[in-house]
Amino acid sequence: LASITDGAMYAAAPVAGDEGWAVLFKESYKTMIAQEDGTDKEETIDESAILKTVAEGKRPAQGLWIAGEKYTLTRQEEDDIDGSPIKVAVAGRPKKGVVIYITAIGTVIIGMFDETKSATQTVGNCRKCV
User: Fold this and answer.
1) pLDDT for residue 22
2) What's the 3-state SS for the chain?
3) Which of 1, 38, 99, 113 has the fewest CB atoms nearer than 10 Å to its CB?
4) What is the mean pLDDT of residues 28-52?
5) Contacts of 68 (CB under 8 A, 6+ apart)
6) How many whole angstroms separate alpha carbon 78 and alpha carbon 116?
């Protein structure tokens, strides 16, 4: 879970051994980012700021980064759950992905899937579980 106001995460599961934090979050860091002209440039990645950008319905310039891994944002749409409007973002990378729900009360809910761990971990099942 994260706050829509700053993208800061405040809860992660599973809690045993802080495993949830390891797969969901990494403190700000520098990494090389490929530029449109084919060169690489070192940039600071602030995952909380990037998540806030996604929660606002925008596409982050550096892409979506979660726990040090870059995901391609493939879909941003609005949905309705039991009469409550929500925003949904879907992103993926090879064999992995995330579904992000942004609620009307300012909570960001992130669900992740990893097809290498189980054949039932898919974007469709992830979306149902979140």
Assistant:
1) 86
2) CEECCCCCECCCCCCHHHHHHHHHCCCCEEEEEECCCCCEEEEEECHHHHHHHHHCCCCCCCCEEECCEEEEEEEEEEEEECCEEEEEEEEEECCEEEEEEECCCCEEEEEEEECCCCCCCCHHHHHHHC
3) 38
4) 94
5) 26, 29, 31, 45
6) 29
